[in-house]
Specification:
Helices cover 38% and strands 26% of the residues. The chain is α+β, with helices and mostly antiparallel strands and 276 residues long. The protein folds into two domains: 130 residues, no CATH class; 120 residues, Alpha-Beta Plaits (2-Layer Sandwich), CATH 3.30.70. It has a six-stranded antiparallel β-sheet, covered by helices on one side. Helix 7 crosses helix 8. The radius of gyration is 20 Å and the shape is globular. The two termini are 25 Å apart. The relative contact order is 0.16.
Length: 276
């Protein structure tokens, strides 16, 4: 399975799936190409209402991904009211007709069996490939700063791992809101005492979620931070660095940033593209 979340790449059928099938033949069979839609941003973009947080060029990528889809998956159905589900379905079906829509929850497993059934089917790739403006694509990708960091936290008394993970995300979230920077995602994995907690944020107007609970405490914690934000890399780096320092001071712990890289993605240049 080749999987890629909405908002980070598009044109996968023409640049990966079809070239692999052409060069490797029967070793690969084309199943329906499914695209996962994140409701927090998707609802804003599709409805055209409210503050969406991203530019038209970034939204161009999002829309191209839905255009390319042969099956559209709307995740986090467990968090959506019936009216929200109906609105999303209506907007998707009106703007991207002919594509089945399936609501799923990766968290609870709702409708995952139906997804397996859909992916187990075989289908023929479309005879025509969508047009992609790679200049707009590159500019849209470059608007998001990427950050990866590892941090070591230590204290003489035990720290509740779940709380630390949540507080890191909350602290970064507050700083991003203060500078009007929209996160595409913010993920924190906090480990210690042979246990792991994961906290994440999917948009500025949603609360921090504890997706994996450790239920444990530890004196020495290892933290991994992964972020994609509509912000330049240096500002993103400063935001995360200052957030770690603030939280360390608040908790009275020692914090050491072991590694941190922040950058913009390079221009997408496919080696192969069917139809060219």
């Amino acid at each position: 399975i080749l999987a890629e979340p909405v908002g980070s790449c598009t044109d996968l059928v023409a640049t990966i799936a079809i070239p692999m099938m052409e060069q490797l033949g029967e070793k690969f069979v084309h199943s329906p190409y499914a695209v996962v839609l994140k409701p927090s941003h998707g609802a804003k973009i599709l409805s055209g209402e409210g503050k969406r947080g991203f530019s038209e060029k970034a939204e161009y990528i999002f829309r191209k991904q839905l255009e390319e889809a042969e099956l559209i998956l709307i995740n986090r159905v467990d968090e959506l009211e019936d009216s929200q589900q109906e609105s999303l379905r209506r907007n998707v079906e009106e703007q991207y007709p002919g594509r089945p829509v399936l609501f799923i929850s990766a968290k609870t497993g709702q409708n995952v069996d139906s997804l397996y059934d859909a992916l187990a089917a075989t289908s023929s790739p479309r005879g025509e490939f969508m047009t992609v403006d790679y200049d707009v694509y590159a500019e849209g990708e470059a608007e998001l700063g990427w950050l990866n960091a590892t941090v070591a936290l230590s204290t003489e008394t035990g720290l509740p791992i779940d709380s630390v993970a949540m507080q890191i995300v909350d602290t970064v979230r507050e700083r991003l809101i203060s500078i009007d920077a929209e996160p595409a995602h913010l993920k924190v994995l906090c480990s210690g005492a042979d246990s792991v907690a994961v906290a994440n944020l999917v948009s500025s107007d949603t609360p921090t979620m504890l997706s994996v609970s450790s239920g444990a405490s530890g004196k020495h914690l290892s933290v991994i931070v992964n972020a994609r934000v509509c912000l330049d890399p240096e500002s993103l780096k400063k935001t995360v660095t200052d957030s770690i320092a603030d939280l360390a001071s608040k908790l009275g712990v020692a914090a050491e940033i072991e590694s941190m890289e922040s950058f913009r993605p390079g221009r997408p240049v496919p080696t192969y593209r069917a139809g060219n």
